[in-house]
């Protein structure tokens, strides 16, 4: 039964089966995301004065310095003893595994992501929990697929499901979770993936509402816009340009710190990151922690001029240094703080510059800044816009948000900055790149077990005419010939039939036929795992110069043959997929 389920998942139209799996992935991913939040909040409740979460400002200056230092030291001690393969965490790691390893994520990395992010956030590092939640959500989908030995074409969809559920559980924004999974992690929109991803995101939102209630992630006041044309055609585009420059500076600074510190031991980098955060915390305490309390203050218009400017500069520097030195936490939350502070500052300027009552509320500027900064850093305009709509519940935000977000993305991406998504920039810094090819994307959605031909027979290289005739009586299309040293050769059954007919005169049933010697067109068969996709099959044929594959459980020690697959079959399946689109 499970084998039939796996085979069905290898097809393009396996939506009911993927949707069933999406329910379990959504449940598990949202539970893990909620567990991470609970661990962080309980740890802060225990450590911080009066048990207030994110209340790092209430610590004495010595505590503001020592707590991040202690967190960095603890992480250094743990990471120093970890094998390098288990140190990789975060969204960049997820994208790398999707591009180069069929989305197979290791459970040890997910465990270290949970532990590392918890220590970072409890100790006040200026980072976020959304990136770790995405890693843990993606791992939920990947590990389920690996445990059930599902075909690889389903792994990408299940990773997207886990990502969407994690984002939905983090912000109570299911639609933004769907768009984020497609636009930021998968880096492609697949209509066939939308149904299970939407289902997982909905489950993530339901789970977080059951646990925390239906309150939004931020205290968003109701906004009444001024409909001032100066704002619409001058000030909001200018604000978008400013945020685009800040996003590009942030990405560049993070890259520079990462490149400069890369040769250093991980323990040295983590201790330095903790000390740098502690020093920044003494100078500007609101920089410590994720900063959601600061975002709420900005949305309510409660920041002063000096604090807004300090947060713009301080949060940008502290986050870039902490992430550049490799701390295992995220950057989405900090972009909210940077964006809200920048928007707040631009709103303060607007209230001084425009006539009384002509400027929109300062909190509205802060909200625009959140969406613009997040989208410019991630180069994800639709995710930023969707998040704003769900967080505000105000349709009037659409036009100004579109304007500010588009300008911010264009400025960050255009000369002289030319910045891509920060995750792609980090991936390229490792000497890697995202595999983004239309043909590869299409072939990745079909499993080899769906495309393989099961009308075959298996014969030894030397067989009697009687054995060969019995095999042909089963009407196979292909003959898999088991040659010496475990190699296999493919020939068409029609060629074997012609060979037997040509030598039928004066032949007996006990005569031996050499299947490697009769006139026929033969192809050397290469083994491929039954979980592989057509993209993997085509890549294997191109790399090793083969013409055909046989599908098996263990390519390293192939035993049973489940089917054969030629390059022509792969091309036919690709053409069929294009006709169905």
Summarize the structure.
This protein is of the alpha/beta class and 581 residues long.
Rounded to the nearest angstrom, the distance between the terminal CA atoms is 30 Å
Quote the average pLDDT.
Answer: 89
Question: What is the CATH topology classification name of the largest domain?
Answer: Clc chloride channel
Indicate the CATH class of the largest domain: Mainly Alpha
CATH architecture of the largest domain: Orthogonal Bundle
Amount of beta strand: 5-15%
Main sheet?
6 strands, mixed
Strand order, biggest sheet? 1-3-4-6-7-8
How many strands in all?
8
Query: What structural class do the secondary elements suggest?
Result: alpha/beta
Number of helices: 24
Uncertain residue segments: none
Helix content: 55-70%
Integer-rounded radius of gyration: 29 Å
Shape designation: elongated
What do we call the CATH homologous superfamily of the largest domain? Clc chloride channel
Q: What is the number of domains?
A: 3
């Amino acid at each position: 039964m499970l084998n039939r389920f796996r085979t069905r998942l290898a097809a393009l139209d396996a939506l009911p089966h993927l949707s069933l799996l999406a329910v379990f992935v959504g449940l598990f991913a949202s539970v893990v995301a909620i567990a991470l939040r609970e661990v962080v909040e309980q740890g802060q409740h225990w450590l911080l004065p009066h048990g207030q979460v994110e209340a790092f400002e209430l610590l004495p200056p010595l505590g503001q310095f020592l707590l991040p230092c202690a967190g960095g030291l603890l992480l250094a001690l743990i990471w120093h003893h970890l094998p390098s393969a288990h140190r990789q965490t975060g969204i960049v790691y997820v994208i790398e595994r999707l591009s180069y390893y069929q989305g197979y994520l290791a459970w040890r990395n997910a465990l270290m992501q949970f532990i590392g992010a918890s220590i970072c956030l409890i100790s006040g590092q200026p980072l976020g929990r959304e990136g770790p939640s995405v890693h843990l959500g993606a791992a939920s989908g990947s590990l389920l697929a690996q445990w059930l030995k599902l075909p690889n074409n389903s792994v990408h969809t299940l990773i997207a499901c886990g990502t969407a559920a994690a984002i939905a559980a983090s912000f109570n924004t299911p639609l933004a979770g769907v768009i984020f999974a497609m636009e930021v992690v998968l880096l492609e929109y697949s209509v066939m993936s939308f149904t299970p991803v939407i289902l997982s995101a909905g489950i993530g939102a339901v789970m977080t509402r059951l646990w925390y209630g239906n309150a939004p992630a931020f205290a968003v006041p109701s906004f009444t816009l001024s409909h001032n044309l100066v704002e619409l055609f001058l000030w909001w585009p200018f604000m978008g340009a400013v945020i685009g420059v800040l996003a590009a500076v942030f990405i560049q600074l993070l890259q520079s710190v990462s490149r400069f510190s890369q040769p250093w031991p991980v323990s040295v980098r983590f201790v330095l990151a903790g000390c740098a955060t502690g020093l920044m915390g003494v100078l500007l305490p609101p920089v410590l922690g994720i900063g959601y309390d600061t975002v709420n203050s900005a949305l309510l218009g409660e920041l002063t001029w000096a604090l807004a400017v300090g947060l713009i500069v301080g949060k940008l520097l502290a986050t870039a240094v902490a992430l550049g030195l490799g701390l295992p936490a995220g950057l989405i939350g900090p972009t909210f703080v940077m964006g809200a502070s920048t928007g707040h500052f631009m709103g303060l300027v607007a209230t001084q510059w425009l006539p009384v009552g002509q400027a929109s509320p300062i909190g509205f500027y802060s909200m625009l800044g959140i969406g613009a900064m997040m989208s410019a850093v991630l180069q994800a305009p639709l995710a930023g816009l969707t998040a704003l709509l769900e967080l505000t519940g105000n349709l009037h935000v659409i036009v100004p948000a579109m304007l500010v977000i588009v300008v911010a993305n264009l400025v960050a991406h255009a000369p002289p900055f030319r910045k891509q998504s920060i995750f792609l920039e980090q991936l390229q810094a490792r000497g890697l790149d995202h595999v983004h090819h239309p043909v590869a994307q299409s072939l990745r959605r079909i499993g080899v077990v769906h495309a393989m031909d099961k009308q075959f027979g298996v014969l030894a290289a030397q067989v009697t005419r009687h054995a060969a005739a019995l095999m042909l009586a089963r009407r196979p299309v292909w003959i898999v010939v088991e040659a010496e040293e475990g190699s296999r050769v493919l020939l068409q059954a029609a060629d074997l039939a012609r060979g037997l007919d040509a030598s039928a005169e004066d032949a007996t049933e006990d005569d031996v036929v050499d299947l490697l010697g009769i006139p026929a067109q033969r192809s050397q068969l290469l083994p491929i795992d039954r979980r592989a996709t057509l993209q993997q099959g085509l890549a294997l044929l191109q790399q090793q110069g083969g013409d055909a594959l046989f599908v098996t459980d263990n390519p390293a020690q192939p035993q049973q043959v489940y089917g054969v697959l030629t390059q022509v079959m792969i091309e036919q399946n690709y053409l069929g997929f294009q006709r169905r689109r």
